[in-house]
Automatic annotation (TrEMBL):
Domain of life assignment: Bacteria
Name of the featured protein: Taurine dioxygenase
Required cofactor names: Fe(2+)
Sequence segments annotated as region (Disordered): 1-25
GO biological process, one term: antibiotic biosynthetic process
Amino acid sequence: MKTNTISRSGKSPIKKVSANKTKPKGIGRVERSFFPGKELPRIYGPGDTNALEQGFLPAWVSKNKKSVEADLLEYGAILFRGFQISSAQEFEDVALSLDKNLKTDYLGTSPRNKVTQFVHTASELPPHYPIMQHAEMSFLDKPPRKLMFFCAVAPKEHGETPIADLRKIYEDLDPDLLKKFETKGVKYIRKYDGPNASRYNLWKTKRWDEMFSTKEKKQVEKIAAQQRFQVEWLPEDGLKLTNKQVAVRKHPVAKTKAWHNHSQVFHQDAARLEYAKILKQQGSFRSLILAGVLYVLTFLKKKLVEPKDQDTNVIFGDDSEISVSEIGKVSQTFWKHLSIFSWQKGDVLLIDNYSVSHGRLPFSGPREILVTWTD
């Protein structure tokens, strides 16, 4: 039986299958579109009833992988919306069809819980925490190539996962500031409590045994050395990690340059600056209160603790400070290019981690977003 080729316009005819035969998976039409007025993400949706069948999407992706890869390379993010994906395992099947090389090692800062072999919760941080725009694990020498998110439970209000084109951030950032970042690079400073500490406190996100998946200090030192992290053991079983990294990266295939660092995540003023933007975007009394609280707490923390002693901080690679004004310009540029859209149950969001960033807006009530990634 001859299989139809799906064109970029989504206009190819539908192949009819005899009712007394089993219909092959992946035979159906997929339409491509965008949200009105937005360039991100590229949206793939069902074009006929065949595309609504369970198991359709992974089969279709496997048959049309070159087309999907071409769109991902061009746009940087693809949202699969309206397909019958209802569980973590079905999401993992879709993810494996997109890329067989899924990974489970995670050296990021957000607490995550494992759900299937390759699927984790996106973040176990409290819902009022803002997660600023970033490329996944950009502080590593080799960050993940792709990310896949899945909406298992859509929030009723807020809780979006905004995305931004990192190539446009690179092009639009103040030229003098960009040159400074690109020349000096960045240095990350992070502190983690030991295995016996509480999982959460006001500023830290998780313990070092959760980050490295071991309670053995020798194993921690081995993994850290592989990532060029400088290790310093602190009193009360604490750990301090320091590493220098580039601020800009070239795409491994397209060779385009993109802003690629965690400066506006780890900077001591990052959360305060982010909530000022969130207040304007959400306009809620809750965000007003949290914005005020963060302003006061950040002020006190900076007065009482030296930058080198902060639990998380980022400075230039030559040890000079990244000023509030400078990180404010970075934040402003990101919000200028931010694409914010509401989750729908069953959504699968594919991101090129070298081209597009992601974050999380605060929310209340039920919300479950799952994630997996490649090398």
